[in-house]
Design a protein that fits this description.
- This protein has helices at about 1-10, 15-25, 30-35, 40-45, 50-55, 60-70, 75-85, 195-200, 210-220; strands at about 85-90, 90-100, 105-110, 125-130, 140, 145-155, 165-175, 185-190, 205, 235, 240-250, 260-270, 275-285.
- The chain has about 290 residues and is an alpha+beta fold.
- It has two domains: about 1-90; about 105-285, Sandwich (Jelly Rolls), CATH 2.60.120.
- Strand 1 (about 85-90) and strand 2 form a beta hairpin.
- Pfam families: F-box-like (PF12937), PP2 (PF14299).
Length: about 290
């Protein structure tokens, strides 16, 4: 009798493909890829359009929907949105792509979409094309004394219940000045957060670490204090990036203040001449 009962048991792999696909669609892109390695039945379900259409954001981005419609399969459409991204509803200054492992939405804001200081007159920056940029032009700092840069993104645009980091993406021109001193700070916060709380979360950074310049800034023979700041990183695309801070979005269904924004800011505290910074933009990327 026991043997007959065992023969009548239904294994998970015996379920109809539609049932498997429905279950897998409730997981993540990473888990779907893992399921595809279980068996041929799981592979067919995990690669189905039903699964991968759930991972493609359907609302708020017609370009993403159009790209998905042109792909041969929804999985190919998803992978395409993970590579270069697409402009957000015709806004060439904002690009959206998906984190390949989680499907979380990531964004890049061009220099044109950022707040840049103009305290020293209209010639503080010049707008020039750049061969490595994803955007039509970048901002090159010509000369200023006070430098602060910030980018804003609607909090609702980010994927709920996800940890994010913001990154300043930049380069430097030959003859740059004032970018190596250890008095640079960044912060990432919700726009409604109290200023005191935002200040408490500020990070020490340095765009162009240079020991000789640091010693010059602090005085001959003086060792600059170790602030434990964020180190810049050279990317594969040739740009440098430095982390500006982190935050976690609210759970799905929870609502913040109407129109609430995520704000990422970079500031140089010292009022001395600065030039040669090339700003490509600010990215908001999901963390694993």
């Amino acid at each position: 009798m026991a043997a007959e009962e065992n023969q009548q048991e239904t294994r998970v792999g015996d379920l109809p493909e539609a049932c498997l696909a429905h279950a897998i669609a409730l997981t993540s892109p990473r888990d779907a890829c893992r399921c595809a390695a279980v068996s041929p039945a799981f592979r067919a379900a995990a690669d189905s359009d039903h699964v991968w259409s759930r991972f493609i954001p359907a609302e708020g981005n017609h370009r993403a929907a159009a790209a998905a419609g042109r792909a041969s399969t929804k999985k190919n459409a998803y992978l395409g949105l993970c590579e270069g991204g697409v402009p957000v509803d015709g806004d060439v200054g904002c690009r959206l792509w998906l984190d390949k492992a989680s499907g979380a939405k990531c964004y890049a804001l061009s220099a044109r979409r950022l707040g840049l200081p103009w305290d020293d007159g209209e010639f503080s920056w010049r707008w020039v094309p750049h061969p490595r940029s994803r955007f039509g032009e970048v901002a090159e700092l010509m000369d200023c004394t006070f430098l602060d840069i910030y980018g804003r993104l609607p909090a609702a645009a980010l994927t709920p219940a996800t940890s994010y980091a913001a990154y300043l993406v930049y380069g430097t021109a030959q003859g740059h000045r004032g970018l190596s001193f250890p008095d640079q700070e960044t912060a990432v916060s919700l726009g409604s957060r109290a200023p005191a709380e935002a200040r408490a979360r500020r990070l020490a950074v340095c765009l162009r670490p240079d020991e000789a310049e640091v010693r010059k800034f602090w005085g001959a023979g003086v060792v600059a204090p170790d602030g434990g700041g964020e180190e810049p990183r050279l990317r594969d695309d040739g740009w440098w990036e430095v982390e500006m801070g982190r935050l976690r979005t609210t759970e799905a269904g929870e609502h913040g203040a109407p129109g609430e924004e995520v704000v990422a800011s970079f500031e140089v505290l010292g009022s001395y001449p600065k030039r040669g910074l090339i700003v490509e933009g600010i990215e908001f990327r999901a963390l694993h």
